[in-house]
Design goal:
Radius of gyration: 22 Å
Strand order of the largest sheet: 3-4-5-6-7-8-9-10
Number of strands: 13
Oligomer: single chain
Distance between the termini: 26 Å
Structural class: alpha/beta
Strand content: 5-15%
Number of helices: 14
Helix content: 40-55%
Shape: globular
Largest sheet: 8 strands, parallel, barrel
């Protein structure tokens, strides 16, 4: 099937699902292509440089800065991280949709659940308004919930257990939050839709399905028009336990990362076997959507990129990873899969835009980043080569303590026994200790200095990853996308 060329139509109607397509109010097909605004309203360790979990990072900085300077710094950080300059650049590439991950803590406190903070809505409104000025769609993505919907750092639970599935109270609170959000954004054509839960990982499967039934019904009662973007279980990769009857006006979302784009994977050489592996991996994830004939949205994918500081052959490495990305995009183009690459902005691992190494922020945290990398505290984009001699005997000893038939019993089963231990020891416990060390770097900073640190994230002070952006621009203009007039 041949795609139409971009028409750059002005957004003036709410999107809806029509068969396997997403269409606007006039029935014109819309391919959503864009990026995730990770690290902003849901902070992640590798994106902005801290270790561990966001709420721990914030608590550590609060203890060092005090309430007034803490609020000042984060207010400035949130202001500078995404501005009209970012949206203008984004739209200039021809991409048309920004996925906005957000943490529930912007909307309610655990000690005061159900009482919503107006600041949370104001933060989202600011992004939506900036995007609307550039004719960009926004997908609202609930990325972190009470107790954590998955076992990883980005659900901001502080542990490696997904306790969201064990407490109805947590689930009730998020259903109610979505009702409040749906009421707030009802009728807003710049909202492409709602992504009720990022990368859920429910060991029993049934809790997730029940939550989706509840949240879909609750949202539809106050906003029957907006599209829902539903992630599969086990980090948006497993739809095997989903009911055969799909939800109405719903797009189903997979996440399609390839380990060939990461240091721990084999390099992508473009062999026929590797291309086949990419296709088979995707088709396994989207088999449900193909069978049910519903639209597919790839909500996250993309390699990380090497630098001269950590890879002597970084140019060759990045060339391989750009080739991997191009192959993935060509596969998505074949069957009109909408996509949102991870991610828009960071400190240099993966972003389309990244903070300059010469900026005040990067100069301040550079020694900490080196230590964090050496200790392999972040799973994303790191390797454990400098601590292998420490962990190998430790892990081997632990492994001998556990009967062989039980070593892969713990969910997610795709994680090895070693990965389960690393998650707890390095990425939770040790990361929390190191987070306090990073916070000490901010000790004694004046508001003027804090403003300069936060200002490092301004678009004008960042570096563009030109080759990545060129690849995305080329692909964005292949389909019938909506964007600014060019």
């Amino acid at each position: 099937m041949q795609n139409a060329k971009p028409t750059n139509r002005k957004i003036d109607s709410i999107l809806k699902v029509s068969g396997t397509d997403i269409v606007d109010g006039n029935g014109h097909k819309v391919a959503l292509k864009g990026a995730g605004l990770g690290g902003h309203l849901n902070m992640e360790n590798f994106i902005t440089g801290f270790s561990g979990h966001e709420h721990e990072h914030r608590a550590a900085l609060l203890s060092v800065l005090g309430p007034q300077k803490y609020r000042f710094f984060f207010d400035k950080f949130l202001e500078y991280f995404f501005t009209s300059s970012d949206a203008k650049f984004f739209a200039s590439l021809g991409v048309n949709c920004i996925r906005v991950p957000f943490n529930y803590r912007h909307f309610e406190d655990d000690m005061n659940p159900g009482v919503y903070k107006k600041e949370g809505f104001q933060l989202l409104d600011r992004i939506v308004n900036i995007c609307s000025e550039q004719n960009l769609y926004v997908i609202l993505d609930l990325h972190a919930v009470p107790g954590g919907q998955n076992q990883d750092w980005h659900s901001d639970s502080g542990s490696s257990k997904a306790m969201f599935w064990n407490f109805k109270e947590f689930q009730d609170r998020m259903v109610n939050l979505w009702v409040a959000l749906a009421k707030h954004y009802k009728g807003n054509a710049f909202i492409a839709g709602y992504n009720p839960l990022n990368e859920p990982a429910d060991p029993d499967h049934v809790n997730l399905i029940n939550f989706y039934y509840r949240v879909e019904k609750a949202i539809r009662e106050v906003d029957p028009d907006h599209v829902l973007f539903i992630d599969g279980n086990t980090y948006a990769m497993d739809f095997s336990q989903f009911p055969a009857e799909p939800f109405p006006n719903t797009v189903y979302a997979c996440h399609d990362y390839s380990m060939m784009g990461f240091p721990i994977g084999d390099p992508y050489l473009g062999t026929s076997a590797q291309k086949k592996k990419l296709r088979e991996s995707l088709e396994r994830k989207v088999a449900f959507m193909r069978k049910q004939k519903v639209p597919i949205w790839n909500g996250e994918f993309g390699p990380v990129y090497a630098s001269a500081a950590d890879d002597a052959n970084f140019q060759q490495t990045n060339s391989q990873r750009f080739a991997l990305l191009q192959e993935q995009l060509s596969i998505y183009q074949e069957s009109d899969i909408s996509w949102s690459i991870w991610l828009y902005k960071d400190i240099g691992y993966q972003g389309m835009v990244y903070v300059s190494p010469s900026s005040p922020y990067m100069q301040l945290i550079a020694p900490f980043l080196e230590k964090k990398k050496a200790l392999d505290l972040d799973f994303w984009g790191c390797s454990d080569s400098k601590v292998t001699h420490i962990y190998e005997p430790f892990l081997a000893a632990l492994k001998e303590m556990v009967p062989k038939h039980l070593r892969d019993k713990k969910y997610p089963n795709v994680w090895t026994f070693e990965r389960q231990v690393e998650r707890r020891v390095r990425e939770c416990l040790l990361s929390e200790y190191m987070g306090w060390e990073m916070a000490e770097l901010f000790k004694g900073k004046t508001e003027e200095e804090l403003d300069e640190l936060a200002g490092s994230f301004k678009f004008e002070n960042c570096v563009l990853r030109d080759e990545l952006n060129g690849i995305l621009q080329t692909d964005a203009r292949l389909g019938d996308d909506v964007g600014v007039e060019i």
